[in-house]
Amino acid sequence: MPQVSVKNRLLNHAAEVFRRKGFHGASVQDITTAAGTPKGSFYNHFDSKQQLAAEIVHRYAQATDFSALHTDRPALERLHTHLIAQLDRVRETGMRFGCLLGSFAGDSTTAGEEVRRNVQRALTAWADQISLTIEQGQATGEITARHPAPVLASFLLDVLEGAFLRAKPWGEHTAAVEEIGIALDALRA
Question: Rounded distance, CA 101 to CA 177, Å?
């Protein structure tokens, strides 16, 4: 079995540390301890905690699975499948820690410009993917055309991220599933 590089170990463990402690609560020492690496090795791979966080945001965004949005099923069904898959992604890492992207979004104004830009890019790319599906649903008359597709896409992301935030204190996802259903019902034509 190939050995994981120190850089990848830092990235993998830092994502979990950031998820649990937030950007400001996580120290370089916390990250290197979790990765089982000496603190000095951190600086062989990253100039700062901000640079590490920006790369984690980029990797998280790249790992987002949009395949459910690109099938031949009805648009609302595709949106539902995609949003539930994102809920499952967060649930796998613990609802009480919420969405990694949402956590970094909350810290983005003080975590540095590179982190803020990567969060912004990730949210924009995600909304763009959802918007394409909404446009297709609007074209078939399945989804309301009262609002532009990009506005509805942002609304769905806001509902999802808000549901993740609300689920944190309970560590439970039932309300999030219900809220996704309500939001999708609001999109029906």
Answer: 19
Domain residue limits, the chain: 6-52, 59-187
pTM of the model: 0.88
Q: What is the pLDDT of residues 112-161, one digit of tens each?
A: 899 999 999 999 999 999 999 999 999 999 999 999 999 999 999 999 98
Q: Which CATH architecture has domain 6-52?
A: Orthogonal Bundle (1.10)
Q: What is the DSSP letter of 70?
A: G
Look up residue 146 and give its DSSP letter.
S
* pLDDT at position 1 over 70: no
Q: What does DSSP assign to residue 4? A: P
Q: Where are the alpha helices (DSSP H) in 63-173?
A: 75-93, 100-107, 113-139, 149-167
Token couple for 38: 């000496």
Residue 7: Cβ-neighbour burial (10 angstroms; 0-12, 13-18, 19+): middle
Contact status, residue 53 vs residue 112, Cβ threshold 8 Å:
yes
Tell me how far CA of residue 34 lies from CA of 3, 28, 39, 147, in angstroms.
17, 10, 11, 46
| CATH number at 59-187 | 1.10.357.10
